[in-house]
Amino acid sequence: MTIRNRIAELLRPSETVYAHCDIPCGIYHPHIAQQGAESVERMLTLIAELGTPTDAAGMASLSRYVTEKETAAELVKHEVRILWGDYFKPPHLEMFPDLHDKVWNIMKLGGACKTGINAADGQALRAAVDELADMFWKTKA
């Protein structure tokens, strides 16, 4: 074993830690999920208003709206998974016994928004994320 390998072995951490980012800060907030849900809802509204494009400009707009909608829906799912998996603890489940069902519903709505263009799904996603945010803030009170 070389000196370099021995030093590396001595400096290697003995335990791996995980957090929602690279710094285990303990800071959680639902605002990114809420902003993403608002973006999804807006993109679905714009898609509905655009209708079926018949020219290049309309097709370009549709492409941008769909891309943003799908990106924002995945962001919502990502941020909600962080809150659900890292922030919420057993005492929070006592306060909100339907927490798992609420998160599952958001995941399903996020998937529906990614794959579809139903404006009602976007509205439902935003309402569900806002409800989860309300639950989050009640745990902070």
What does this structure look like?
The protein has helices spanning 3-11, 31-50, 56-87, 90-95, 99-115, 119-140. The mean pLDDT is 91. It has a single domain (28-140), classed as Four Helix Bundle (Hemerythrin (Met), subunit A). It is 75% helix and 0% strand. The longest helix is centred in the middle third of the chain and has 32 residues, at 56-87.
Features:
single chain; 141 residues; mainly alpha; Four Helix Bundle (Hemerythrin (Met), subunit A); 6 helices; 0% strand
Give me the secondary-structure topology.
Layout: H1 3-11, H2 31-50, H3 56-87, H4 90-95, H5 99-115, H6 119-140
Helix pairs in contact: 2-3, 2-6, 3-5, 5-6
Concise account of the structure shown:
The protein is mostly helical. Helices cover 75% and strands 0% of the residues.
Domain module tally: 1
In terms of DSSP E residues, the strand content is: under 5%
Q: Considering the protein shown, what is the CATH homologous superfamily? A: Nickel-containing superoxide dismutase
SSE pattern, N- to C-terminal: HHHHHH
CATH topology call: Four Helix Bundle (Hemerythrin (Met), subunit A)
Shape: flat
- Low-confidence segments, given as residue ranges, are none
**Could you tell me how far the N terminus lies from the C terminus, measured between alpha carbons in angstroms?**
55 Å
Overall mean pLDDT stands at 91
Query: Count the strands?
Result: 0
- Main beta sheet strand tally, sense and closure: none
Tally of helical runs: 6
The helicity comes to: over 70%
Task: Give me the CATH architecture, please.
Answer: Up-down Bundle
The CATH C-level name is Mainly Alpha
| Radius of gyration, whole Å | 20 Å
The structure class reads: mainly alpha
